[in-house]
Each structure stands twice: as C-alpha cells, then as structure tokens.
Amino acid sequence: MFDRHFFAARRTALGLSVEALADEMLVAPSTIRRWESGETCPTLRMLVLVSRHLCTPLLSLISEEDTEVRSKAQAVVDLLREEPTQAV
C-alpha cells in the first residue's frame, strides 16, 4: 500500500518540514505525522495531491505491485496522461 518510508524520505529530501507540507496541502500537520508513522494512509485522491506536492510519480508512493490500490493508481495516472478532447 502506501510507502510511508518513501514519502518521508522524499519530503525530507525536498527540505520540507511536516508543517510546511501540511500547509501546502491544506491538511493538519498531525495528518502528515499519522501517514509517516503508519497510523493512517492517505486516500488515492490525497495520494494524487501528495505526488504533485512532492514532485514524484504517483506509483512511487505505493509499495506493493499487485494490489487493488496500485491498479487504481495506474488508472489515475493513465487518465492524467490522456489528451483532453476538443469539442466540435
């Protein structure tokens, strides 16, 4: 599921404190701390936001390869890559 160790390492590598990331994402710092401790996991919707704020691919935040969450995340990635269709 959620790779909390990668998440924490990436946040730290970017020089972001828990409070700074929480402010950017409009969540409480305790939410970030619970994610990093493994107490809770972000929803897929939140993972999309996390990937944007940490400038990292969405799938890098999911540790296991053959999970329902990973296949849903892959579908989101595919949707985000699609070119918008133009109305005629």
Structure description:
The protein is mainly alpha-helical and 88 residues long. The protein is 58% helix and 0% strand. The chain has 5 helices and no strands. The termini are far apart. The model has no long low-confidence stretch (mean pLDDT 87).
Low-confidence stretches: none
- Helix/strand-derived category reads mainly alpha
Mind describing the biggest β-sheet?
Answer: none
Number of helices: 5
Shape: globular
In helices, the fraction of residues equals: 55-70%
What's a quick, concise take on this entry?
This protein has helices at residues 4-13, 18-25, 29-37, 44-53, 68-81. The model has no long low-confidence stretch (mean pLDDT 87). The protein has five helices and no strands.
Layout of helices and strands:
Blueprint: H1 4-13, H2 18-25, H3 29-37, H4 44-53, H5 68-81
What keywords describe this structure?
single chain; 88 residues; mainly alpha
